[in-house]
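Got a spare moment? Tell me how you read both lines of this record:
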Amino acid sequence: MRGTCQTSGSKSLYVSLLFLIFVLLESVSGRNLTFATLIYRHGDRSPIETYPNALHKESEWPQGFGQLTTLGMQQQHELGQYIKKRYSNFLSPTYKREEIYVQSTDVDRTIMSAQVNLAGLFPPSTSEMWNPQILWQPIPIYVIPKSFRPKLRYPIFDCPRYKKLLRETMASREFRDKIQPYRNFLKTIADHSGYDMRSLRNLYTFKVWNVQDTLLCESIHNYTLPTWATEDVKAKLEQLTVLSLSSLFGIYKREEKARLQGGLLVKNILENISNAAKYPGKRKMLIYSAHDTTLGALQMALNTYNEKLPPYAACQIFELYQEDTGEYTIEMYFRNDTSRDPYPITLPGCSFACPLQKFSDLVAPILVDNWENECRS
């Protein structure tokens, strides 16, 4: 009897599992990925700008300041391979110019990141190989000039209203409460770095950021660090850099800042996604090669920022699905850790698979029709 009961129970479990698999397959087959937008930070680079008392000068970096390193190339190549794997059933196995469009800021490191990313995404097949000694094929990258709207590089400082908001932010209780615990620490950093306290407290001089970034780059590439750059000091500098990023795009009047900064990119992304839903075509993917501040501005505008610095080659993903009902939904993911799957991100006020119309309604307050007029107001 006991054996009979176990066999009956096993059959019941087996039938239940089959039914569950059937339901899951029906669910999966009932929705289709129709469009994707990816925004990533460039790969590892040399420091942008060093601080006055730094041990190492620009001449000690192979290509000077702000340039993509070989490590950065490896990071972007890995990201390209990941994109190829993630969308293996969506994109064609070989490069099709109608399917993908790549844009970059007009900066060496982002252009080069896009190039090496595409090398990982579309290694040449036999028919595409033009030189058997070079496993690479040219793919166009469209560079966005500084004067273009909407920009990919943030913050945009040529906006009087935004600069006024930054001054208000630095005078606000919210900001003062957050920076007060670091007052003595900033005095110490001023002594070591050669910057004055006023510059270190100023949001749009990026001086704290320069110190933190320089030490990080030097640490990654095994340069000698100053004796005062302990683990505790580096950790506090990172916390202050996160505070700087948060203050640029949030903390105080986040929504209004978003209208003048990251909301421009949100509007551009939403317009492309909406057009893909209304007028399905051959275009399947848009890719933007940009910066940590681009991701920060975007995520702060969406109110999904995780209070961490976006690492090199971090990638924000937007995917448009058509459900079996015909409705379109948007899913968001953030890949900031190569050891695991990207983190799912939910837009506040919506479900993870957010209906396109609801997504559009929720972000409407941060979208602006006339940016120039709002900047002058």
The longest helix spans residues 2-29. The first strand starts at residue 32 and ends at 41. The radius of gyration is 24 Å. The chain has two domains: 32-155+256-376, 160-253.
